[in-house]
Amino acid sequence: MTYGSSSDGRLSKNERREAARVKAKQLRERHKKKERQHKFVLQGSIILGSLAIIAVVTLLIVNGIRPQGPGPLNMLSDGIKIGKNFEAVKTPALQAGKKPIANTTDSASPVINIQIYVDYLCPICGAFEAENSAQIATLVKSGAATLEIHPISILNNSSQGTQYSTRAANAVACVANYDPNHFFDFSAALFVDQPKEGTSGLTNEQLFTRAQSVGVTSANDIQSCINEVRFKTWVTDGTARALNGPIPNSNLAAVKGTPTVIVNGQQFNYSTPFNKDEFAAFIIHAAGTTFNDNSTPTPTPTPAR
Fold first, then answer.
1. Which pLDDT value is given to residue 57?
2. Could you read off the pLDDT of 48-100 as tens digits, one per residue?
3. Of 124, 166, 101, which is closest to residue 268 (Cα–Cα)?
């Protein structure tokens, strides 16, 4: 094997040996340069891949695996209790890892206690609201009854992946936290033109618009709370507690579906289509007894006509 030009054949033996040594050195340096380039490319790829993995993990932590936090103010029982003139009973927030504390009831009191477990995508809940909201509002506003609403999410799989049931429950929790005396109106507003099961439901912006329509204060805080789905963990945990039971201030083992309506501890076993006279008659019956079969008579409403 020869190196260089055609005149190499006239080189001496030592000269040919030196030329070969120089050529070999050049080849080694070229090989080392290629190796360094390959090493840099490989290191860069590893760094970029690592950064991508970190970004994905961070996103999952922020959006899907949020640490458990406290629930909303005024919902220590997993629900909010509304009394005369639609004023909310104020309570501290349910702290992370703690059990809800049920609102106290007095079997000797003439005030009727109504509890409702509701999913805001549930069409039967919407039908119950449409038929009975007026008489419930009359009783609550006058102080003849209290209304405790427990928002839960059992229909997330029926909202095209948007988890509307959870987002709606979170939205009412946001209002309970920042402006509890508008909770009754906001809850009712979510049943006006209620999204149908199987649709994506209202967007977060539309939920906030509904809140604005009932005159909520602390609008910026409520909007941020809705957009962040701040009480998502609380909604999930509260739903599990309702489905696993037992249900406080009643003889129910657990919630089997929505709406679950309880009056003075007794479940309203409704039939559909709803009839407001049927519910009014049940209120009259339940007002004279409690779930533990006490029979102290109490003032009762007249069935709505």
1. 40
2. 655 555 543 443 444 445 556 799 999 999 999 999 999 999 999 999 999 99
3. 124
96 plus 26 within the same structural domain: no
Contact by Cβ (8 Å): 163, 153: yes
**Structure confidence at residue 123 (pLDDT):** 98
Residue 296 lies in a domain: no
**pLDDT top residue among 38 and 129:** 129
Order across the sheet with 112-118: list the strands. Answer: 80-82, 145-151, 112-118, 260-263, 266-267
More confident residue, 140 or 295: 140
Please tell me whether residues 125 and 216 are part of one structural domain: yes
Question: Do residues 176 and 267 share a domain?
Answer: yes
Same domain, residue pair 27 and 119: no
DSSP 209-267: HHHHHTT-SSHHHHHHHHHHTTTHHHHHHHHHHHHH-PPTTSS-SS--SS-EEEETTEE
Q: At what angle do helices 164-178 and 232-244 cross, to 10 degrees?
A: 110
CATH number at residue 135: 3.40.30.10
H helical segments located in the chain: 13-63, 123-142, 164-178, 183-189, 204-213, 219-228, 232-244, 276-287
Structural domain containing residue 29:
6-63
The verdict on 150 and 108 lying in the same domain is yes
Give pTM, 2 decimals: 0.75
Same domain, 39 and 137: no
Are the C-beta atoms of 153 and 119 separated by less than 8 Å?
Answer: yes
